[in-house]
Amino acid sequence: MTPESLALLSGVILSLAFSYIPGLRTWYEVLDSDRKRLVMLAALFVAVAGTFALSCAGYGDQFACTTAGAYDAITVFVLAMVANQATYLVTPKG
Fold first, then answer.
1. Which residues contact 39 (CB under 8 A, 6 or more apart)?
2. What angle do CA 12, 84, 46 make, to 5 degrees?
3. All residues at 6 or more sequence positions from 20 whose CB lies less than 8 Å from its CB, including other chains
4. Residue 48: helix, strand or coil by DSSP?
5. Domain carrying residue 65
6. 3, 60 in Cβ contact below 8 A?
7. Are 58 and 25 in contact (CB under 8 A)?
8. Which position has the higher pLDDT, 7 or 54?
9. pLDDT score of 94
10. Which ranges constitute the DSSP H helices of the chain?
């Protein structure tokens, strides 16, 4: 799986999880819009940063453990945000 497809998939999965998983949805719905954005941004960052860290530790090959690999991770993070927000816009609201 390429880093880009992994990012798109993780962005979609996170958005669907916060929309449909009962306990998570309830907790997320009561947050104001700024906090919702920060929570989602943090979750996406953890997913991408974790993938980059695992690649550097030798547990994956999604990213090269170089400066260029870090730039690729930033690009993937942006793609994940786009996929996440696009999914959020089309999912039904409570």
1. 18, 28, 31
2. 90
3. 91
4. helix
5. 3-90
6. no
7. no
8. 54
9. 59
10. 3-20, 22-29, 33-56, 67-90
At 23-82, the pLDDT tens digits run 998 998 899 988 988 898 898 899 889 889 998 999 888 888 999 999 999 998 998 888
Name the token pair of 60.
Answer: 């994956």
Q: Which residue has the tokens 């798109």?
A: 8
Burial of 42 (0-12, 13-18, 19+ CB in 10 A): exposed
What pTM was computed for the model?
A: 0.79
At which residue do the structure tokens 């994956």 appear?
60
Question: Count of domains in the chain?
Answer: 1
Q: Tokens for 79?
A: 């793609």
* 37 CB neighbour count, 10 Å cutoff: 13
